[in-house]
Design brief:
The complex is a heterodimer of chains A (261) and B (259). Chain A is of the alpha/beta class and 261 residues long. In chain A, 36% of the residues lie in helices and 25% in strands. In chain A, strands 6-7-8-3-9-10 form a six-stranded mixed β-sheet, sandwiched between helices. In chain A, helix 6 links the parallel strand 7 (178-182) and strand 8 (209-213). The longest helix of chain A is centred in the last third of the chain and has 16 residues, at 190-205. Mean pLDDT of chain A is 89; it is low at 1-7. Chain B has a single domain (35-245), classed as MetI-like (MetI-like fold). The radius of gyration of chain B is 22 Å and the shape is globular. In chain B, helix 2 (29-68) packs across helix 7, helix 4 runs antiparallel to helix 7 (119-144) and helix 7 (119-144) crosses helix 9 (161-191). With 259 residues, chain B is an all-alpha fold. Classes of the chains: A alpha/beta (261), B mainly alpha (259). Chains A and B meet through helix 2, strand 6 and helix 3 of A and helix 8, helix 9 and helix 12 of B. Bound molecules: adenosine-5'-triphosphate and magnesium ion. Adenosine-5'-triphosphate (ATP) binds at residues 21, 24, 26, 44, 46-52 of chain A. Chain B: Residues 42-238 form the ABC transmembrane type-1 domain.
Chain lengths: 261, 259
């Protein structure tokens, strides 16, 4: 964990993020960090703002206030007055986004493309990787998530678990610095959850930096270095999984864990 | 280019000749005599229809991009254009552009006069602008029916607005919108008969001329049959394109993938 100069320093740093939806203050100042090779799990009740936080990190929602930096590079938000709504440079934003890959609850594979094309699309269009190279990479990544026999299948013909594994391969194809997961197993039938968690566990072991919103407490406990409990738009509690799961300090966290465990 | 036009004209005459002579043993005398005129009109209708649907489609692409753009200086004019052309009868549009503008004459219209004095050109222009408005709305329906996650996935991997449009949104929207688009082409074919009111000798114009010489009402039946043949050909063409674009269970996927 002590690679060139980032030792002890946050690879992802999120500072004082605020987000307001037409008067509803969803995020009320969130600050946390993740070191390289670290897995951070975000847990919390429905509506506590987990998805919103994740979406703010890669600018699918524009935070009203706050700062985000990846690998020492600050997200190109330029405060105008009291709000961040004006973004300096669309190109910077896109490059920034490309360094963070997102895996969605509903997979969001592109329905008009085969799995292979889904995985090739970002590299070819955004990273300008030559097609042949992107195809090779796509095949390797899909093999890695166990989908070698589905390369030319369309998303509609795959099970939920297979679609999510393909979506993970698509995220990896962007060579992201950080992987963001928003409840990647919540839309799956129970018997399909395991295969997706297995892939994610594998990525964690490999040393990927990941931020995972999850309701799978067993998984959070097993793979994360740090667990963050979100409560009503604030960080209610955070710490290593042993602490959060075995001796939570706040009532809210205790109650939440009692309701999900 | 000129060669191409000449080849087309020759082909047209050859086609009309051979169809008419093939039909003559099995047709009533009335039709046999009028056959070349019918086919003259038939081809005028096809020409207007193909040109206006292709040009109209291209304009519709530009209009729908403006319409869904977050920039109000683009979306408001696009909206107004669609509103005007969908909200007024095609007949009125034809008459305004042909008789209305045409009444300004050579002095009023200057270099545009040669264009506006020809019913055929005004007909083509009006049909094009009219269908573009409808097609833009049809495409917008397709775009807005896309699950938002499709676009977010594209944003999340860093695609530009134009990449998202070109690679993700449009290819799906066109497939969603295709049945409605096919409907619009057939409606346009029928509506095109109105150009006969601005002196264009399309299938309807020719049918009326032939009728005015014989006063035999069955003439209209032959006209109708030719329209039906054209509708059949168009439907076939639209189906072929649909089949070429088809993606296994794409449309079912749309509805079942919504959370
Ligand atoms: N685009 C939006 N517009 C308005 N309100 C929103 C929007 N997105 C989220 N919200 C609101 O913000 C709050 C937090 O939502 P968020 O999706 O972040 O919660 P969550 O912690 O991810 O919940 P869940 O576990 O159910 O996914 C909710 O009350 C939600 O209704
Ligand atoms: Mg959520």
């Amino acid at each position: 964990m002590t690679t060139n100069g980032t030792a002890g320093q946050d690879y992802l740093s999120v500072t004082d993020i605020h987000k307001d939806f037409g008067g509803l203050e969803v995020l009320k100042g969130i600050t946390f960090g993740a070191r390289q090779h670290e897995v951070v799990s975000l847990i919390g009740a429905s509506g506590s703002g987990k998805s919103t936080l994740l979406r703010c990190i890669n600018l699918l929602e524009i935070p009203d206030r706050g700062e985000i930096a990846v690998d020492g590079k600050k997200l190109p938000l330029s405060p105008s007055g009291r709000s961040h709504r004006h973004i300096t440079n669309q190109r910077d934003v896109r490059l920034f986004r490309a360094s963070l890959a997102m895996v969605f609850q509903n997979f969001n594979l592109w329905a008009h493309m085969t799995i292979r094309q889904n995985v090739m699309e970002g590299p070819v269009q955004v990273l300008k990787v030559p097609k042949a190279e992107a195809a090779e990479q796509a095949e390797a990544l899909l093999a890695r998530v166990g989908l070698s026999d589905k390369l030319d299948a369309y998303p509609a013909h795959l099970s939920g678990g297979q679609q999510q594994r393909a979506a993970i391969a698509r995220a990896l194809a962007m060579q992201p610095k950080i992987l963001l997961f928003d409840e990647p197993t919540s839309a799956l039938d129970p018997e399909l959850v395991g295969e997706v968690l297995a892939v994610m566990r594998d990525l964690a072991t490999e040393g990927r930096t990941m931020v995972v919103v999850t309701h799978e407490m067993g998984f959070a406990r097993e793979v994360s270095e740090n667990v963050i409990f979100l409560h009503q738009g604030r960080i209610g509690e955070q710490g290593p999984p042993e602490q959060i799961f075995q001796s939570p300090k706040t009532d809210a966290c205790r109650k939440f864990l009692a309701s999900v465990l | 280019m000129f060669d191409l036009v000449q080849t087309y004209l020759n082909l047209k005459i050859a086609a009309s000749d051979s169809i008419c002579s093939a039909l003559s043993p099995i047709s009533p005398e009335l039709f046999v005599n009028a056959c070349p005129r019918f086919f003259d009109g038939f081809f005028v209708t096809i020409e207007l229809l193909l040109l206006s649907s292709v040009l109209g489609f291209l304009i519709a692409l530009a209009v729908v991009l403006a319409r869904v753009s977050p920039n109000r200086f683009l979306s408001i004019p696009a909206h107004a254009y669609i509103y005007v052309f969908r909200g007024t009868p095609l007949l009125v549009q034809l008459w305004v552009l042909y008789y209305g503008l045409g009444s300004m004459g050579a002095e009023g219209l200057g270099p545009l006069w040669p264009f506006f004095k020809e019913g055929w050109w005004v007909g083509l222009l009006t049909l094009t602008l009219n269908t573009a408005a409808y097609v833009a709305e049809i495409l917008r329906g397709g775009i807005e029916n896309l699950p938002h996650g499709q676009v977010e996935a594209a944003q999340a991997c860093g695609m530009t607005w134009s990449q998202r449009m070109r690679r993700i949104i449009f290819p799906q929207a066109i497939r969603i919108a295709w049945p409605a688009y096919g409907n619009e082409v057939i409606l346009l074919m029928k509506a095109s008969a109105l150009v006969s009111t601005i002196t264009v000798m399309d299938l309807m114009g020719q049918t009326r001329t032939i009728f005015s010489r014989s006063y035999d009402l069955s003439i209209f039946l032959y006209g109708a049959i030719l329209y039906l043949v054209l509708a059949g050909l168009l439907t076939l063409g639209l189906r072929l394109v649909e089949a070429r674009m088809a993606i296994p269970s794409f449309t079912q996927a749309k509805s079942s993938r919504q959370p």
